[in-house]
């Protein structure tokens, strides 16, 4: 386990101890185990103190919950527990979002990256792939089609064209849609409930399994600089101008947001930084965010986004809550 992974694990253990000790049903029987945990590593006590401080902030939130009251239930009456009731909801949900699809990807992916890791490699035909952070790709080439599946995250493809002996189309499948290369370079990003496609050079054809009107699958061609977003059950969204620089920024250590919904901004940030960001107020999830951030300073990015939108932010062990 790396040093950063161990620090994350300690923060999680500290959060669990705060919740456990705040439960009256735990009683004094939990204290010997807690004291043994404190003594086992000099990093445990400061981690526990930081977790307690975060819980204290949540106590204030319980007294003045504002928008957060709309999306989480009130604490149990008479229980005497601290505001750990909030984390009892948010932490498991955040961790499920972080790791819930990991087992599926471990089985299906031929290529994958970890949080904050990017990688470049070539497919069997020579097509170059820049795979973004916390992303996974399955390669399903056969005699008829060069097909890959983007299981999560984002990828930039520089495709070997159909010429000479290579006559097979190159197709990327993601979340109920496909992208077929009609040129050489394009990017695909999976946000979980939607997919964004950007034509970087030449042209691509995007098709959604959702029928267009009474006809067959919804299809559209994009030229260089064009982008669109599609979602399962929603079909293809409008074509917008994105420019190639935005879609390729991650290969230069930058994250660029140009009017992107907060929910998608958070999905991308969660792939590049440790810990999870949770949008606890659905009313702000669709608000648009613009900015350019360095991958090495994404805590600053979270601050900047919260300030730009005028929303509150609380940093907790493992989770940052925007509400």
TrEMBL record:
Residues 111-205 form the FecR protein domain. Pfam families: DUF4880, FecR. Signal peptide: none annotated. Residues 13-53 form the FecR N-terminal domain. Gene3D superfamilies: 2.60.120.1440. InterPro entries: FecR, FecR_N, Ferrdict_sens_TM. PANTHER family: PERIPLASMIC SIGNAL SENSOR AND SIGMA FACTOR ACTIVATOR FECR-RELATED, PROTEIN FECR. This is Protein FecR. It comes from Methylobacterium jeotgali.
């Amino acid at each position: 386990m790396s040093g950063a992974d161990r620090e994350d694990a300690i923060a999680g253990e500290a959060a669990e101890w705060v919740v456990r000790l705040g439960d009256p049903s735990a009683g004094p029987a939990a204290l010997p185990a807690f004291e043994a945990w404190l003594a086992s590593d000099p990093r445990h006590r400061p981690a526990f103190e930081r977790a307690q401080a975060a819980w204290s902030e949540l106590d204030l939130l319980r007294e003045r919950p504002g928008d957060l009251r709309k999306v989480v239930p009130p604490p149990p009456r008479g229980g005497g527990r601290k505001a750990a009731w909030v984390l009892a909801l948010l932490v498991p949900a955040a961790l499920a979002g972080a790791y819930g699809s990991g087992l599926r990807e471990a089985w299906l992916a031929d290529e994958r990256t970890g949080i904050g890791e990017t990688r470049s490699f070539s497919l069997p035909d020579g097509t170059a792939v820049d795979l973004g952070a916390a992303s996974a790709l399955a390669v399903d080439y056969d005699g008829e089609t060069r097909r890959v599946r983007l299981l999560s995250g984002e990828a930039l493809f520089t495709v070997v064209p159909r010429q000479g002996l290579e006559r097979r189309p190159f197709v990327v499948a993601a979340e109920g849609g496909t992208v077929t290369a009609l040129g050489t370079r394009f990017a695909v990003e999976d946000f979980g409930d939607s997919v964004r496609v950007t034509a970087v050079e030449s042209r691509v054809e995007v098709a959604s399994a959702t029928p267009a009107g009474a006809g067959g699958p919804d299809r559209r061609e994009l030229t260089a600089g064009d982008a669109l977003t599609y979602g399962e059950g929603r079909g293809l969204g409008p074509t917008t101008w994105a420019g190639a620089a935005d879609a390729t920024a991650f290969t230069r250590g930058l994250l660029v947001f140009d009017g992107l919904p907060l929910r998608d901004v958070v999905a991308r940030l969660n792939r590049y930084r440790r810990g999870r960001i949770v949008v606890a107020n659905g009313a702000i999830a669709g608000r648009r965010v613009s900015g350019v951030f360095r991958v090495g300073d994404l805590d600053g990015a979270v601050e900047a986004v919260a300030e730009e939108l005028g929303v509150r932010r609380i940093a907790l062990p493992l989770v940052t809550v925007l509400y």
